[in-house]
């Protein structure tokens, strides 16, 4: 048995076991939650904890708020089930599919979008995986396969090898991406042997999932360097989580550290409207503030796209601070992170088929266009169409 498997084997599932290791937790409150949403914390991740309410504890220790009902959230807000033509495969966008290959995770994250499934009796069988591969093979429009779960790296090396080989054998699949949280929550999983398998299947991209700078331990950094040394481009997806990473400066530090470890911040998600996770949700204004903070305090390479995965299966939609730009079809007023305004004009001339240039038709700009894009001006311009 490998080290990562031994660590997983010692994971904590029972509230009483957790209480022995983390003094001060409310065993009865945790029991009220785990009947609905099971707990699973591996000892590596628990070793990062300083107190139950810190950003590590909030991500792994069940909270009574999970079983408080509310009217805004649902079990499957992204409508994944209705976009699944075969079990364990979501086909929402024309050219790409999300292939859920594993039902296991190295930890049950309390904020998980698939909370309805993770840690329950949800199982993905090898037959389901085979059917999903057949579906991909029979759909030539699919050029991008995102391998997800659960966590794909909870499968054995042999299974991962077989899966990648089968997907790579489909001629129309151009890109394979893997989404995994193991570098953050069980970095021991990124063994030299696993990496030697992955590097056979380029072009392969990996999106990791770090939520807080404290997750970037020496073990996590070693895992990331193994993947990067294998030539695998690394991106990070974080979810904006109240009490975890919504404090000023946390995302700046996280993304700087990720970049220093050759991980490009990719997405910052607004938390989904998932049942049992309402206490993690922040306002969109918080996300916008963090984006401004990132733009002002770190390099563009460390600035992810801020997106909302639209409820009801609308897909990922980028969100920008609303005062960032204002465009009237001719000129754009831009506001930088310091609140200073700049104007960018479209070209006055336009090319015609004979190769010469002609002047573009002039359009009268609204009188206040070059004024700073205050909230009332933005609203006025929107009303004017
Ligand atoms: S590792 Fe990912 S899929 Fe698993 S519980 Fe955490 S967020 Fe959910």
Would you give an account of this structure?
This protein has a 9-stranded mixed β-sheet. The chain has a 3-stranded antiparallel β-sheet with strand order 10-11-12, with no helix packed on it. Strands 13-14 form a two-stranded antiparallel ribbon. It has 3 domains: 61 residues, no CATH class; 238 residues, TIM Barrel; 59 residues, no CATH class. By secondary structure, it is an alpha/beta fold. The mean pLDDT is 89. The longest helix is centred in the C-terminal third of the chain and has 14 residues. The protein is globular, with a radius of gyration of 23 Å. Bound molecules: iron/sulfur cluster. Iron/sulfur cluster binds next to loops.
Mean pLDDT: 89
Q: Specify the CATH class of the largest domain.
A: Alpha Beta
C-alpha Rg (nearest Å): 23 Å
Percent of residues in helical segments? 25-40%
Largest sheet: 9 strands, mixed
DSSP summary: helix tally: 13
Report strand %.
Answer: 15-25%
How do the helices and strands follow one another from N- to C-terminus? HHHHHEEHEHEHHEHEHEHEEEEEEEH
Q: For the largest beta sheet, what order do the strands appear in spatially?
A: 1-2-3-4-5-6-7-8-9
Low-confidence stretches: none
CATH architecture of the largest domain: Alpha-Beta Barrel
CATH superfamily of the largest domain: Aldolase class I
Ligand kinds: iron/sulfur cluster
Shape: globular
Question: Would you summarize the structure shown here?
Answer:
The chain is an alpha/beta fold and 385 residues long. It has helices at 3-9, 15-21, 27-34, 43-46, 55-60, 126-137, 157-168, 182-185, 192-198, 218-229, 250-260, 284-297, 375-383, and strands spanning 89-90, 96-100, 144-148, 175-179, 204-208, 234-239, 263-269, 305-310, 315-318, 325-327, 331-335, 341-345, 349-351, 357-359. The longest helix has 14 residues, at 284-297.
């Amino acid at each position: 048995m490998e080290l990562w498997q031994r660590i997983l084997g010692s994971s904590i599932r029972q509230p009483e076991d957790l209480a022995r290791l983390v003094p001060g937790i409310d065993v009865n409150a945790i029991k009220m939650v785990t009947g609905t949403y099971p707990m699973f914390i591996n000892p590596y991740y628990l070793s990062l904890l300083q107190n139950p309410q810190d950003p590590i504890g909030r991500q792994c220790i069940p909270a009574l708020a999970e079983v408080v009902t509310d009217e805004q959230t649902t079990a499957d807000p992204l409508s994944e089930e209705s976009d699944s033509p075969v079990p364990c495969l979501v086909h929402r966008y024309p050219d790409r599919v999300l292939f859920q290959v594993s039902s296991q995770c190295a930890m049950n994250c309390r904020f998980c979008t698939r909370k309805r499934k993770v840690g329950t009796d949800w199982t993905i069988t090898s037959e389901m995986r085979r059917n999903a591969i057949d579906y991909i093979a029979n759909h030539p429009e699919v050029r991008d396969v995102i391998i997800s779960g659960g966590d794909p790296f909870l499968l054995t090396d042999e299974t991962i090898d077989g899966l990648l080989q089968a997907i790579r054998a489909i001629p129309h699949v151009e890109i394979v991406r893997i989404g995994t949280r193991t570098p953050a929550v069980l970095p021991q999983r990124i063994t030299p042997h696993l990496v030697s398998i992955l590097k056979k299947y380029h072009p392969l991209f990996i999106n990791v999932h770090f939520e807080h700078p404290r997750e970037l331990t020496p073990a996590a950094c070693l895992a990331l360097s193994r993947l990067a040394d294998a030539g695998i481009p690394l991106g990070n997806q974080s979810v904006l989580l109240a009490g975890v990473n919504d404090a000023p400066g946390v995302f700046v530090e996280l993304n700087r550290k990720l970049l220093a470890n050759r991980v490009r911040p990719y997405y910052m998600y607004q938390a989904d409207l998932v049942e049992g996770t309402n206490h993690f949700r922040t306002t969109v204004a918080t996300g916008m503030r963090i984006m401004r903070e990132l733009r002002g305090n770190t390099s563009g390479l460390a600035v992810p796209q801020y997106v909302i995965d639209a409820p009801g299966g609308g897909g990922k939609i980028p969100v920008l601070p609303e005062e960032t730009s204002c465009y009237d079809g001719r000129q754009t007023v831009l506001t930088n992170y310091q609140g200073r305004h700049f104007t960018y004009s479209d070209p006055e001339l336009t090319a015609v088929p004979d190769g010469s240039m002609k002047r573009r038709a002039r359009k009268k700009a609204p009188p206040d266009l070059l004024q700073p894009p205050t909230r009332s001006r933005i609203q006025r311009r929107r009303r004017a169409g």
